[in-house]
Amino acid sequence: MSTIKAGIIGATGYAGAELARLLMSHPHVTLAAVSSVSYEGKTLAEIYPNFIGVTDLILEDADAVIEKSDVVFASLPHGLCEPIAKKCVEKGRTFIDLGADFRLYDEADYNEWYGLSYKEKELHDLAVYCIPELDRQKAKGAKIIANPGCYVTCSSLGLAPLVKSGLADLKHVIIDAKSGVTGAGRGLSLTTHYPECNEAFSPYKIASHRHTPEIEQNLSALAGEKVTLTFVPHLLPVNRGIVSTIYVDMTKPSSAEALHKMYADFYQDEEFVTVLPLGDIVNLKNVRCTNNCQISVHYDKRTDRAILVSAIDNMVKGAAGQAIQNMNLVLGLPENAGLKLIAPIF
Amino acid sequence: MSTIKAGIIGATGYAGAELARLLMSHPHVTLAAVSSVSYEGKTLAEIYPNFIGVTDLILEDADAVIEKSDVVFASLPHGLCEPIAKKCVEKGRTFIDLGADFRLYDEADYNEWYGLSYKEKELHDLAVYCIPELDRQKAKGAKIIANPGCYVTCSSLGLAPLVKSGLADLKHVIIDAKSGVTGAGRGLSLTTHYPECNEAFSPYKIASHRHTPEIEQNLSALAGEKVTLTFVPHLLPVNRGIVSTIYVDMTKPSSAEALHKMYADFYQDEEFVTVLPLGDIVNLKNVRCTNNCQISVHYDKRTDRAILVSAIDNMVKGAAGQAIQNMNLVLGLPENAGLKLIAPIF
Amino acid sequence: MSTIKAGIIGATGYAGAELARLLMSHPHVTLAAVSSVSYEGKTLAEIYPNFIGVTDLILEDADAVIEKSDVVFASLPHGLCEPIAKKCVEKGRTFIDLGADFRLYDEADYNEWYGLSYKEKELHDLAVYCIPELDRQKAKGAKIIANPGCYVTCSSLGLAPLVKSGLADLKHVIIDAKSGVTGAGRGLSLTTHYPECNEAFSPYKIASHRHTPEIEQNLSALAGEKVTLTFVPHLLPVNRGIVSTIYVDMTKPSSAEALHKMYADFYQDEEFVTVLPLGDIVNLKNVRCTNNCQISVHYDKRTDRAILVSAIDNMVKGAAGQAIQNMNLVLGLPENAGLKLIAPIF
Amino acid sequence: MSTIKAGIIGATGYAGAELARLLMSHPHVTLAAVSSVSYEGKTLAEIYPNFIGVTDLILEDADAVIEKSDVVFASLPHGLCEPIAKKCVEKGRTFIDLGADFRLYDEADYNEWYGLSYKEKELHDLAVYCIPELDRQKAKGAKIIANPGCYVTCSSLGLAPLVKSGLADLKHVIIDAKSGVTGAGRGLSLTTHYPECNEAFSPYKIASHRHTPEIEQNLSALAGEKVTLTFVPHLLPVNRGIVSTIYVDMTKPSSAEALHKMYADFYQDEEFVTVLPLGDIVNLKNVRCTNNCQISVHYDKRTDRAILVSAIDNMVKGAAGQAIQNMNLVLGLPENAGLKLIAPIF
């Protein structure tokens, strides 16, 4: 298998840098170019000393990345990727967007939640949104991949089997999610200033986070009807990881055993999704630094409510790892290439 | 005002030691005696070096504490307090139980959730369960105080105005709570071993935590009907503090403004409960080391669901501080005596 | 005793805000005014929500603080306090500077380490540098107090008895210090961005930190000769606290017992300095949120080297608490007024 | 290259489990068997849920491991490995001891620091102590490898060039080391109980830690004379990593530049040791989860003292990774096989 040249636009943000780290160990890929607006001209290792002795790559501009790469990843704030995607399509590069610009199929949603319009509508017709475990068949050969949001991946995988089963009361879906601080990125803020963030905890963007319509888009597709839910994220004083605790009323009484079987069956062939044995409970630490999603299934008999707990590493399955998984699917590589990661125990 | 002699049975557990710390600064109290089964004969400062130079108290046995004190606090595992309460009543001591033995009015609940029966039923008729902001009028002159659980205090204060209003759909109350690790006490376990607890996060005792019937007892009293709810606690990698994110369906559509007014009015005369300005969001750090509860009120217009966020310090308002507040009420002291604590900023 | 009006210039930095918190509980002080360049016009509680319900103070400008206060504290970056001190002296206010502008007696040192000159030399003649345990007699009635640096206080207290004894080899004094992140202040930086600071550890300003000449100034005064030492600070992933591990060669062999007696005798009358029992080891957590310094004394028989470990809370004994202690001394108040703080256990 | 069967005795301690994790990704190794006294009969994935879906290995006893493996690793408390080593030698297995039993060449040192004697002296003649960067040539074909201690590796690599140069004043070597909590292992203790360990910091075993004679053994070999030094470890509230800040007096004045060149030359061919560019400072986070050692070189001109800062991951280069590096050397595999690990950025 010949080596694929990959490039990263926005390589010094957290997701971009994690992507660089993972691509450097991918058996079929060479990291060919990286760019950064803030640090152009410096080496990647100057910005992240963990790369000293590992790579001599110099941060260039976006055009240089597109020029040198077969596959172009972008990890940028929303609103910047249409022109990049356009260039990639014109030059025959595969474009994988870790940001939000191609995630929402309905432009009205993008307009409502992000305050922007689509300028290049035909690009959006080319774009494929893909959580591989739910959308795998759509990815092969895609020109543009919209890589899903972190909270979205965790919550959608946690809800998919139940929502698809028709047994969920879709008016009563509540997602209480908690994310490590890398989810907020590398930009400085008082909220993420160590003394204000350590020994602290709070929700944020209550019922107004931009990942809400994307979760609903996924669940609506599974349910075959419009789903509207409550989503509340919290900032957790850890570096990495997301745990979603999900509450769903049932259309008729069920049991932990029945739900567990439903989930185990749904994900039985998935390498990256593990349904824990009945009785076990998900812990964020067991998926850290991996592309895995662990899910535990619970049932509150007193209120006839399903409780799903799902965890991912927000930087890997929630960003860089899933982007690589998507690249593998697009290019017909083994889906797990470069992603056989085992969580460190501590 | 003459000085009250206070004693603590179980002074080397976390709640007992925090109580010792707070009582040492109480203007109307002398900490007269402390006991510990594990460390009897040692000084308190040998066990907790923060007390070096502050107190020379020696850990004695429970009988010595009862003998030397006007008010006896106990902070023990459940199932041990009936004989202590009995002795206190016989000797005319006020007894304040930080544990669970007198919290549930219905023995059937105690039997179901704790697996034990009441041996001294007449003591339970004497016992007064008291969250001061909800039950203040019952405390004065009480012989036995059942001090509420930490999760219970946080959740009950967060829910009380809405549940009492009659506007809550009592079939749809979900409490997603997160507690710092001191809530698990000083007993050693793998779960609280630093390398397993740090950079980790998970729920535990999903829909089966013993504080559930106690929360329901409080809410049922406010609602005038039986409330059954879903309660899921999580272990948060911080030392102190609880945040409860509470989801309640409404019986009819409302608004953030209306709910906020309801909460502000309900707690307008309370020194220890603050309803944040509309738009602000509770953060655990702002109540740390205080007897305060901060609550923020939110409304999800898309699903017509109220979202309440409440935070307390589990060791103070959730245990030792509320026990002192209750003592103040019982004895007719100013309710805030010894409790004018300002949270450190970091 | 009539109430003293205190004001804080720079009240929204960490030291200023901690000072505000402590002054609010001082029995002889009213916090009369606070200022902030960044947040003028807002309430202090808007900036720090732990003050909601505690104070309605509005942030003003520095002149307003000087006007309204008997004692003016300033907590500002270096280079800004001479004009403030001048106004205070002219108006008869006591001025207490938590910053560095009046700490170094020798202008050449200030010039070398801070790159600035003294513009108002006569003010420096008025200024009294005071670690109370070492310089107490100088403080009473002072018009300007130079409040010592955090690392300086911790290290000087840890070294004073041995350096004064004449038994230290003054050519071989090494201070390896570790500070919590609040020591870096509230200003944002990548170094203190949570994901870069958490699960990380490193020294900084190796042998070049500005507290070096101040420590040397203190030790030279005690030794009666010029001391030059090696000082290396490290950034510790905790919010508060400093631990200094200090290595000193002896001019002749000694023992742990002899050194311990020397230290215990030296500090026997000090309320805020505790020499731990021989064999115990200092832990940062036992001084957190207090004005205390704990010191443990050790001896390496294999190399005939004394090892001293001292710990303080950098924000209290290292800044705001010591400033209050100094204020108490200047004004003839009980030295411990407002400072009877007991460390929380966790 | 045929696959090597590796086994781990003591696979559920932290070093053993980390070794399991790394061996599972080693290109020339199959993890054939694992043992645990505490958990025999359970699967490894039941003890560490990060292994769910990765391995079905069942914990057996030590004999089963020896039987099934070409290379046997042991990670056990000291005093237990002589009989295991004996069996391995008899059966022709390579034995790699991650514990202390074969580290000290001089039995008197073992007796003094560990309180035990050697029972099988001839085994100790077979044993090879090996930090590869210092002792590489001794490892090939060894029957027993004594894998160095974590603090020892970090400190020895940080000191080797200077000690070997003859420019170090060997009477004035001080190592102030800080280790993450995994260094204390998985055994429960109050010291490592989360609420006592978080937001805390202290030294321990001051000038009495068992790694002291092992560091001295290494440095004495490099210096050609007996080295006696001061070593003080501290417990750092992070999961992984060691930073050693090392102070060395010089026999004659030098400079940062000269020292830096000495270090860069010494390690120029080493893949796992990086000397940072002059002016940069080591941070623990940049070596986390890798087999790398990063070293920065500093010089205090005011006292003519060299300051070296070295960092490793205590679980990888300080234990499991170095054990694999040693295995690679013994068996003639590429030294970096299974160890091309890139530190996660956060």
Summarize this entry quickly:
The structure is a homotetramer of 346-residue chains. Chain A is of the alpha/beta class.
Structure, explained:
Chain A is an alpha/beta fold. Chain A folds into 2 domains: 4-147 and 317-331, NAD(P)-binding Rossmann-like Domain (Rossmann fold, 3-Layer(aba) Sandwich), CATH 3.40.50; 151-314, Dihydrodipicolinate Reductase, domain 2 (2-Layer Sandwich). The first copy, chain A, is built from 12 helices and 14 strands. Chain A has helices at 14-24, 44-47, 62-68, 81-91, 107-114, 121-126, 132-135, 150-165, 194-197, 211-223, 256-266, 316-331, and strands spanning 4-9, 29-35, 59-60, 71-74, 94-97, 127-129, 144-146, 168-179, 202-203, 230-235, 242-250, 273-275, 293-300, 305-312. The radius of gyration of chain A is 20 Å and the shape is globular. Chain A starts with a strand and ends in a 15-residue tail after the last helix.
CATH superfamily of the largest domain in chain A: Dihydrodipicolinate Reductase, domain 2
Give me the oligomer status.
homotetramer
Portion of residues in beta strands of chain A equals 15-25%
**Gyration radius from CA atoms of chain A, angstroms:** 20 Å
User: Hey, which two chains have the biggest interface?
Assistant: A-B, 48 and 48 residues
Strand pairing plus helix content of chain A: what structural class? alpha/beta
Topology:
The structure is a homotetramer of 346-residue chains.
Chain A: E1 4-9, H1 14-24, E2 29-35, H2 44-47, E3 59-60, H3 62-68, E4 71-74, H4 81-91, E5 94-97, H5 107-114, H6 121-126, E6 127-129, H7 132-135, E7 144-146, H8 150-165, E8 168-179, H9 194-197, E9 202-203, H10 211-223, E10 230-235, E11 242-250, H11 256-266, E12 273-275, E13 293-300, E14 305-312, H12 316-331
Parallel strand pairs in A: 1-2, 1-4, 2-3, 4-5, 5-7, 6-7, 8-10, 12-13
Antiparallel strand pairs in A: 8-11, 9-10, 11-14, 13-14
Helix pairs in contact in A: 1-12, 8-10
